[in-house]
Write the structure tokens for this entry.
Amino acid sequence: MSRRPGSIQAMAAMIEEQPQDRGRVLRRLVGELKPFRRAIAVGLALVVVTSVAQGVAPWVISRAIDRDIVGHRSLTGLGWSMLALFAIYAVRSLAQQAQTLSISGSGQRMLAGLRQKLFEQMQRLPLGYFDRHPVGDLMSRVVSDVGTLNQFLSQGLSQLVGAVFSLAGILLAMLLLNARLALVCFTLVPVMLLTTAVFAARARTAFRKTRETVGEVTADLQEGIVGIREARAFNRTDLNLERFRARNAANRDANVAAVGITSAFSPALDVLSTLATALVIGYGGWLAWNRQLSIGLLVAFLIYVQEFFRPVQIAASIYTLMQSAFAGSERIYAILDETPEPLDESGAVELGSVAGRITFDHVVFAYDEGRPVLRDLSFDLAPGKLVAVVGRTGAGKTTIASLIPRFYDVASGAVRLDGRDVRGVQRESLRRQLAIVPQEPFLFAGTLADNIAYGQPGATRDEVEAAARTVGIHGFIAGLARGYDTVIGEAGGTLSHGQRQLVAFARAVLADPRILILDEATSNVDTRTEALIQEALATLLAGRTSLVIAHRLSTIRHADVILVIDHGRLVEQGAHDELLEAGGLYAELVRKQFREAPATQALVAPA
């Protein structure tokens, strides 16, 4: 039976599911602290010391009043009482500081481990996960949500634990001093618990909303910064501002609603504290009038009542932080609970040197179930050949290139390398045989030398320079003030697109792959840069199996084999002249492109 969001069934399900989810998150967070149980045990012991000191202090005050002031009127006794009180508060202060260091330190170490787990999990997640989730939202989970949990662990956790133990100590002390007066005060406890439960239920939903909306704001911010050039080029800045304003307002409203709920919590406790004080003065005063309670004990009870509600008020003060931390933890564990990329099969073999034969055997693949991108695709590429893949936009060309290194796994059929199903070999050994140069290469913040040697971290400077010379970028790099030690910005923002592309080619040259995949790698560079790349590739491609996804069809006219893909199927296969003569889809694409732009130099010169 389907459940509408507003139905009774849906509401009941939310009541049942949300506490379970929150309890599960709490249990997992406690589990994260297990490696630090010794330090936490020390912290809890110190919390007990603090609670005992807090419970004993009012009794010492009551004893000083009854014995040293009202009773024997002894200055010596009063002096000793004051010294005892000073010692108690000194011990309490030192124990509080030590417990904070112990518990908060354990929390920080746990947090560092959790952040490490998050990063490791992201490195293991399949690429399809990142296709479905905005980068800004993921960054929000790693930075903002972890930061919120950090605030709670560093500031709130030790206070919360201390408040719980202090409350227990005060309750015990009140019962020991006068059970009747204590029980009268405790009549307000059910009201306090009910009030807390009501606010907790409302705050849980409110703070989950704040974490979701801050993720949307971060995602929109990241997109707005990365796409600033396109936004200005298409006059979208005003529309983008409106969209960001709306999401920012939604986050503001969610936070205002959450703070509004928690801000009402503390005044509600103040009202209960005032009622408890009135009960102590009224009933305790009546007991004192009838000589059933001493003045000192009445004063002690007044102190205990104030101390009784102080831990609850401390909890109220960190309630906002705690609810936000739990909501952030839910989003953190949502990532950790994602299914990672499947491990290599138990019998996966280490792939040694390969000849480079690539076979697609009746491959079917879909990014979204029920919407196949490749449909029963089969072809066989001989080792050491230059193979071009062409077709209309969305035909599945880039998908073919992504299946060879197992960025994704086929739904059915098989991709084979030298006759071996790539699912039966170790991923790392498979990818060591490959180098990929995408249309939009990604360069990392660091030096040019580091970026060229990214696939070969142990490469020498001579090897790096040799790779740069091969693709014709050495002269440009040598002309920079710091040469190969020049630090480039994130994503290579200080370089032109052509220069970034040449660095990516140098990276591929240095990797010395057996199989080279070029995913429209020359489609966005100028003619002069493309000529430099083509000259380098004539050497780089020699003797290697090379798969070229081509946009400029003129650049692949001398490919050994051209595969023509249409709607995920292989519709034509052959050499340039053969396909032109056949007059099919390839001939149509060539005619259309040559009407739009002049021919350019071929990717590889004829032998």
